Amino acid sequence: MTALSTTPALRGTAGDASTGRAFTRTCAAEWTRLWTVRTTWWFLAAAAVVMVGLGAVAGFDAAADPVPPQGDPAWLVSRISAMPAQFALLGLALITVTSDYATGGIVPSLQWTPRRTVLFLARAIVTAAAATSFGVLLGLASALAAFAAARPGLSLPLDEGLEVLGTVAFVFAAGTLLAVGLGFLLRNTAGALVTVFLLMLVLPVLLPQFGYEWMSELARILPGTGAAFLLLGEVPRMTTVSSVTVLLLWAAGTLLLGWLRLMRDDASR
């Protein structure tokens, strides 16, 4: 009786441990997969060229100014360069998901990790963490490039640097999670790329130009508008709270829809 009564408890413990091991191994596999694909390096190289290049250009422009700046923070360059560079990281996040569907690799991926939620979480976390970490490093490199090119005109105050890099990290993390969700939801590289460009760049800029209030209101609830306010701060009637809320809701919403499709639909179509 004692042996029979303890068997279910032991099985439950083994199942919990197995889930943890499966998640750890899947994260390790996703990390290896991410860094052994040539496309990853191309996207990261593009982001590096944009951010560091813009930082250096801004520094040289400041140094060549007839009235050079005196003590202005170089961190502003990180905010500006992050706006165009984020699209390289968004593309990386999308391709990481949709390439599996384009090549049919999603089938062996799910055979190796049949627990779809485990695969979904591992891919989302690894992709967003890698892209965000690299983006923050590039933000630091962009400010350092501007500082070095403009010396002694620019400064690097630590407190402002932490604030700027934290903002850059949040924008990149929310954006890449949104891209991962779109990848799982649409399962098509071209469609996902067009959608993310519309949401993050085209519609936030285009809609207010029509002059209709409802279009301006619609633009303010798009993720690209929230990212633009947090990085550049030049969006009318937006606040930090509303921008953060918009980005979080879009990231959470697309991830939820992507997870639901992965769980309910055949992975091969």
Structure annotation, total helices: 10
Radius of gyration: 22 Å
Give the tally of β-strands: 2
What's the mean pLDDT score?
89
Distance between the termini: 49 Å
For the record, the count of structural domains works out to 1
Record the strand order, biggest sheet.
1-2
* Helix-strand string: HHEHHHEHHHHH
Globally, the shape reads globular
Q: Biggest sheet: strands, sense, closure?
A: 2 strands, parallel
Derived from helix and strand composition plus strand pairing, the structural class reads mainly alpha
Word description of this protein:
The chain has 269 residues and is mainly α. It has one domain (24-264). The chain is built from ten helices and two strands, in the order ααβαααβααααα. It has helices at residues 2-35, 38-64, 75-103, 106-112, 116-150, 158-186, 189-206, 213-220, 223-232, 240-264, and strands at residues 72-73, 154-155. A two-stranded parallel ribbon has the order 1-2. The protein is globular and about 65 Å long. The model is unreliable at 1-17 (pLDDT under 50).
